[in-house]
Amino acid sequence: MDVLELNAIHPAQRDLVGGKAADLAALIRLGERVPDGFCITTAAHHRGEVPREEVLAAYDRLGGGPVAVRSSATAEDLPDASFAGQQDTYLSVTGVEELLKAIHACWDSLHSHRAIAYRVAVGVAHESARMAAVVAHLLDDPRFAPEKGDRRRPGAAALTTAPKAAAGILRALARPAAARARVSGEIERLRTHPVADPSSAAELLDLVEEATHAQTRLDRIIWPVVSGLLVSAALPPLLKGIASDDEIHTVLGGMPYNVTIEMDLALWQVAQRATPYREILLHTPPDDLAAAHLAGELPDIGLSTFLDSYGHRSAAEVDVGVPRWSENPAPVFTMLANYLRVTDPEQAPDRRFQHAAARAEAMLAELTRRARRKQAVRGRVTGFFLRRSRELTGLREAGKFAGLYALRDRRRRLLLIGAELQASGLLERADDVMFLTLPELRAAVQRGDDLREVIAGRRSAYARELRRQTVPVALLSDGTDVEALLPARASDGHTLTGTGAASGHATGRARVVRSLASASIEPGEILVAPTTDPGWTPLFLTAGGLVTETGAVMAHGPTVAREYGIPAVICVPGATERIRTGQLITVDGATGTVTIDQPVTTD
Fold first, then answer.
1. CATH no. for residue 35?
2. Residues 8 and 138 in one domain
3. In terms of domains, do 271 and 139 share one?
4. I want to staple 323 with a disulfide (CB 3.0 to 4.6 A). Which of 7, 99, 220, 327 is the partner?
């Protein structure tokens, strides 16, 4: 046969059907939604003759109508050579003769000048290239149809958005307090907005599958957030020759109006109320405390109020499969125990934050004076941007925080579906739904498919992956670890080099933490972790410094570290392996180095 249906292609037939057809077939096997279609094989291309009768029969099975004819070469979609755009695609092909003509044209594009030049450039032999062609049904979906009379050119959306963006940004810069009020009001609306869920699993799944139309009124949040990011990004060029990077980072310390910092300080207040129960909270396993809290058996320390505001958060909170703190507050009890270990009033999180804010305000005044000495106008502009950075940059966490409410609703609906399937005997546990794709879940809901064996295999793989000590920062498409290709950084045996992300200098005992669930940290210890996200930030309030193996200067962890006034060094390869808990280490945020008091083995 010279024509194969896409859903009938076997993984071993890649040379017969080409890269694109093979990949589409793989997606179909995974349960993804792929338009119906068929492939004219490389064998037909090699003979130079379109198998007319087979093509017409396959086209008839599609129901005729408009189709796309796409190249599917054997030298295509390769790990190191995508051939993107090098061979031709024809859209809205209708009718038998047009279809046959498009297939011939698609074949001919294998030998176009650009395809030949690309093969030469990437070292693919011309004689090894074979061409198949994919014919796929064009979807008639109103969601993708242009609106009547819509004749906008490419870029028209940007032209529409630009005035709105400019107005929103200028409005926030002119009245930052009002901008903050709009953000807070929208977050509160999302928190208290009543959400009704249907009673049946099928209806719940319909809601889950629907395209996400956020209930957030984006303009109320996005432009104040963007305004804060813009003014903070403007500071380095504006202060060039006036301030060092460390001094600019100092201005960004103790930053107000950051919802993540407000969360951490709110938890500190819970810890203060929990002081009478200190011994119980320090010596009872967090899982037991969580169970007791959910059962209503613990005294009121303000935790329920805290969870009303922040219970939709967690570590790895953008993963819908991860339980929220409201479902499992064990990590919150772990962090409360860390707070209760603070006995020095000067190390109290609120006091440390106040000190960082005072340093920031003092540095703001000093840099404004320096700018004025250079030039009066520059001084006024610098002062304005520095002040606005203090008034708006803290809002950077608000967008993600607001988006977590939709994720909370999605997770709740999935768990309700899981509970119904568990009751009918199709799942062992309600949260088994997190190990199914949406098409698989649809099959279980509508047809009663029993997928427990599939879930068991995936749970086993997940548990195995959780034991993995390190995860590559980046992989090439062929699986190569990018870091393995980089030259080794020079080291004297006791100095590790990364990227300075928060200014300052701190010496303390290291505490290596790979999981937030076991994150016991003494006041003043240096937190060493693979990575961090907002769920980890309560630990920063008592840590002396931060070292991570991955990250970015503007990511959540380093940003919050700056705002707490603790030094941070990120992107330190193998930090959790080369540093051991209890070692005395020094973190220097200015030089991006971590110094250990004894040589580090490199084997």
1. 3.30.1490.20
2. yes
3. no
4. 327
C-alpha distances out from residue 308 to 302, 305, 405, 448, Å: 10, 5, 12, 36
140 with 9, same domain: the answer is yes
**Residue 581 tokens, joined:** 């808990």
Closest CA to 572 of 555, 590, 586, 593: 593
Residue 5 bridge partners (DSSP): 38
- The domain in which residue 542 lies consists of 490-596
- Determine, yes or no, domain membership for 354: no
| Amino acid identity for residue 404 in this structure | L
CATH classification at residue 581: 3.50.30.10
Output the DSSP codes for 148-198: TT--PPTTHHHHHHHHHHHHHHHHHHH-HHHHHHHHHHHHHHHHH------
507 alpha-carbon distance from chain centroid: 32
346, 379, 404 — which closes off a domain?
346
Identify whether the C-beta of residue 103 lies closer than 8 Å to the C-beta of residue 40. yes
The token pair at 219 is: 């303009």
Task: Using the 3D structure, point to which of 313, 346, 379 is the last residue of a domain.
Answer: 346
CA distance 471 to 316: 15
Burial-class residue 138 by CB neighbours within 10 Å (0-12, 13-18, 19+). Answer: middle
Question: By three-state DSSP, how is residue 91 classified?
Answer: strand
Going by their DSSP bridges, the two strands 499-502 and 568-570 should be labelled as antiparallel
pLDDT digits (tens, 9 = 90+) for 107-123: 888 877 777 777 776 66
Q: How many domains, the chain? A: 3
Structure tokens at 333: 């009890």
Nearest to 92 by CA among 31, 49, 140, 138: 138
Whether 398 and 218 have beta carbons less than 8 Å apart is answered as: no
Q: What is the 3-state secondary structure (H, E, C) of 363-375?
A: HHHHHHHHHHHHC
CA dihedral for 348, 349, 354, 356, sign (positive or negative): positive
Rounded CA separation 115/103 (Å): 17
Of 95, 410, 405, the C-alpha closest to 259 is 405
Helix (H) or strand (E) holding 501: strand 499-502
> Which tokens is 314 given?
């967690």
In a domain, 225, yes or no: no
The pair of structure tokens assigned to 72 is: 């599917």
What tokens does 110 get?
């294998």
132: part of which helix (H) or strand (E)? strand 131-137
432 falls within a domain: no
pLDDT for the residue numbered 322: 95
Instruction: Tell me whether residue 443 is in a domain.
Output: no
Q: Let me know: does 347 contact 523? Beta carbons within 8 Å.
A: yes
Which phi-psi region, left, alpha or beta, contains residue 260 (left: φ > 0; alpha: ψ -120 to 50)?
Answer: alpha
